[in-house]
Amino acid sequence: MGIKSLACPMSFERIDKNVVRVSAIITSGILALYTVPSLASTAAVLILMLALAGDYAVRVFTSQLSPIGWLGRRLTLRLGMKPMDKAPKIFAVRVGFIFAASSVGLFFADPTTAIGVGQGLMGFNLLDGVLDI
């Protein structure tokens, strides 16, 4: 796989836009929990970060539905499929994985920065899930 295919993936596959958007909103909700004061214990935040990094890893490294993708699909069963190209989402998931993995890695050096990276990822997920950008 060349660098061009990593940065600009090609795919003729179609995916359900409704599942993508609902999954992005679910991910945003989990990321919002990073900053809830009652959950701000070190262990709780680290568990959330690890869970999201794991979910993104499933999306990037396997062809299986991630746990959040599975939940998104279950929640959108009655909406019918709204097809879209998969290629832009392949790129977005790769970037999301980098953010999530960076958040976990930074957590041990500077938890505040790690939470900031998570909030950046939340912003991108909100743009995708709510505004469809």
**Main sheet characteristics:** 2 strands, antiparallel
Radius of gyration: 15 Å
Roughly what fraction of the amino acids lie in strands? Answer: under 5%
Widest sheet: strand order? 1-2
**DSSP summary, beta strand count:** 2
Q: Give the overall form.
A: globular
Report helical residue fraction: 55-70%
- Contiguous runs where pLDDT drops below 50 for at least 5 residues: none
Whole-number mean pLDDT: 87
Q: What is the N-to-C succession of helices and strands?
A: HEHHHEHH
Alpha-carbon distance between the two ends: 27 Å
Q: Which SSEs are present, and which pair or pack?
A:
Blueprint: H1 3-7, E1 14-16, H2 17-32, H3 42-61, H4 67-75, E2 83-85, H5 87-107, H6 111-129
Helix pairs in contact: 2-4, 2-6, 3-5, 5-6
Structure described in brief:
With 133 residues, the protein is mainly alpha-helical.
Question: What does the model show?
Answer:
The protein is mainly alpha-helical. The protein has one domain. It is 68% helix and 5% strand. The chain has six helices and two strands, in the order αβαααβαα. The protein has a two-stranded antiparallel ribbon. The protein starts with a helix and ends with a helix.
